[in-house]
Specification:
The complex is a heterodimer of chains A (about 90) and B (about 210). Chain A is mainly α and about 90 residues long. Helix content of chain A is about 80%, strand content about 0%. Chain B has a single domain (about 15-210), classed as Cytochrome c oxidase, subunit III, four-helix bundle (Four Helix Bundle (Hemerythrin (Met), subunit A)), CATH 1.20.120.80. In chain B, about 75% of the residues lie in helices and about 0% in strands. Classes of the chains: A mainly alpha (about 90), B mainly alpha (about 210). The interface of A and B includes residues 2, 4 and 63 of A.
Chain lengths: ~90, ~210
């Protein structure tokens, strides 16, 4: 098994552990923090997939920037939507 | 593709050409991110506006089948990543085996999803189900309809992914995709496959874990 193959398998194991964690956390009485925890674990999983499976760790900065632009777009959208719905009396 | 030189105009070198190929695919993937991102943001707002109803509707979803499907899709992504790895080393047979495994796991996902949809139809949760309707409140029905559209759109993307991977297997098998110098073709199909996986990584907590 080469070093690269070992890395990919290791990432998969971490992804499965994170799946177990998020499933377990959904049974805990976390209240309003439950979605926060679940989305945070989702973000961690997505980061691992982008960085290792989708080659972002080995490509040029330009491609990383394009990929990051997608995330920035979502953050802007969520910020604008939240500024409306989360602040209504 | 076999008669195509490794580097073609306007590129000067193979690395530059590969970067351009990946960049083009990433630009497309960002449009997909915005499509699903907009949709899932709307679902999040439904959850903010109707917390009780979203939670009671989510309790009708099959958490175990949903979790199993997450594991199936993550494993298919590993198979795809390993296929890309061996395709770069020019190993044809392992690439074909890895890609077949990826597509097979995609099919397993669709079968499990189909079983889930059928169960939901039998329970009267679907818009066209007859008999008793467990979802009576508007917020519950809204959440469930979002679930149907979201998972349906994802399943459509996965179906396209399976067709792409099957076409790629055929191309590698018939040596129309020459390895390793056209390994970027495998990488690009892989990028699409992994993005469909990432979309599910967010669908799973936003719908199934909303209980």
């Amino acid at each position: 098994m080469t070093a690269r193959t070992r890395t990919l398998v290791l990432v998969w194991i971490v992804l499965m552990v994170l799946l177990g964690l998020t499933l377990g956390a959904s049974f805990l009485p976390l209240g309003a923090f439950k979605p926060v925890v679940n989305i945070a674990i989702g973000l961690a999983k997505a980061t691992l997939i982008f960085w290792f499976f989708m080659h972002l760790r080995e490509v040029s900065g330009l491609i990383r920037l394009v990929a990051f632009a997608g995330a920035v777009g979502i953050v802007i959208m969520l910020a604008l939507i939240s500024s409306d719905y989360l602040t209504r009396p | 593709m076999s008669d195509r030189p490794a580097v073609h105009s306007p590129y000067a070198e193979a690395a530059q050409q590969r970067d351009a190929d990946l960049l083009g695919m990433y630009v497309f993937l960002v449009t997909e991110v915005m499509l699903f991102g907009g949709f899932l943001s709307a679902v999040s707002m439904v959850r903010v506006l109707h917390p009780q109803e979203a939670s009671s509707a989510a309790q009708h979803l099959n958490l175990w089948l949903g979790s199993m499907n997450t594991a199936v899709l993550l494993t298919s992504s590993l198979a795809m990543a390993l296929s890309v790895q061996v395709s770069r080393e020019g190993k044809r047979r392992p690439t074909i085996i890895g890609l077949c495994l990826t597509a097979a796991l995609g099919l397993v996902f669709l079968v499990i999803k189909g079983v889930e949809y059928y169960q939901e139809y039998r329970e009267g949760l679907m818009p066209l189900s007859d008999g008793i309707k467990p979802l009576s409140k508007p917020g519950e029905q809204l959440f469930f309809n979002f679930y149907l559209v979201g998972t349906g759109l994802h399943a459509l993307h996965l179906t396209i992914g399976i067709v792409l991977v099957a076409g790629l297997v055929w191309g590698v098998f018939r040596s129309r995709v020459q390895l390793p110098h056209r390994a970027v073709t495998v990488e690009i199909v892989g990028l699409y496959w992994h993005l469909v996986d990432v979309v599910w990584v967010f669908i799973y907590p936003i719908f199934y874990l909303a209980r």
